Amino acid sequence: MEEGRLHQLYNRLRLAIEPNFLGMVKANLSEETRRMIFEQISEDLLALNTREIEAHLQRH
């Protein structure tokens, strides 16, 4: 994510990360990258297939 920000590959982030892992990920992001987060979905989506994940994210 840091490299993507540095290379301007995105201008905002939506994080959909399992709750326990979300804190670890955010702790390792720079302040600049954390400011680009516009939405956090702290759920375990591992049991869903790709279509279900896409539908779930569209509802948020």
Q: Order of strands across the biggest sheet?
A: 1-2
Radius of gyration in whole Å, from Cα?
12 Å
Say how many strands there are.
2
Q: Can you give the mean pLDDT?
A: 91
Give me the secondary-structure category. Answer: alpha+beta
Strand/helix succession: HEHHEH
- In DSSP terms (H or I, runs of 4 or more residues), the helix count works out at 4
| Low-pLDDT regions | none
Helix proportion range: 40-55%
What is the total domain count? 1
Largest sheet: 2 strands, parallel
Percentage of β-strand residues:
15-25%
| Apparent shape | globular
- Give the termini distance in whole angstroms: 21 Å
Pfam families: Host_attach
InterPro entries: Host_attachment_protein
Protein name: Protein required for attachment to host cells
Organism: Paraburkholderia elongata
Descriptive overview:
There is one protein chain. This protein is α+β, with helices and mostly antiparallel strands. It has one domain. Helices cover 47% and strands 15% of the residues. The protein has helices spanning 2-6, 19-27, 31-34, 50-59; strands spanning 13-16, 37-41. Strands 1-2 form a two-stranded parallel sheet. It is globular, with a radius of gyration of 12 Å. The model has no long low-confidence stretch (mean pLDDT 91). It comes from Paraburkholderia elongata.
Task: Give the SSE map.
Layout: H1 2-6, E1 13-16, H2 19-27, H3 31-34, E2 37-41, H4 50-59
Parallel strand pairs: 1-2
Brief sketch in words of this structure:
The protein has 60 residues and is α+β, with helices and mostly antiparallel strands. Helices cover 47% and strands 15% of the residues. It has one domain.
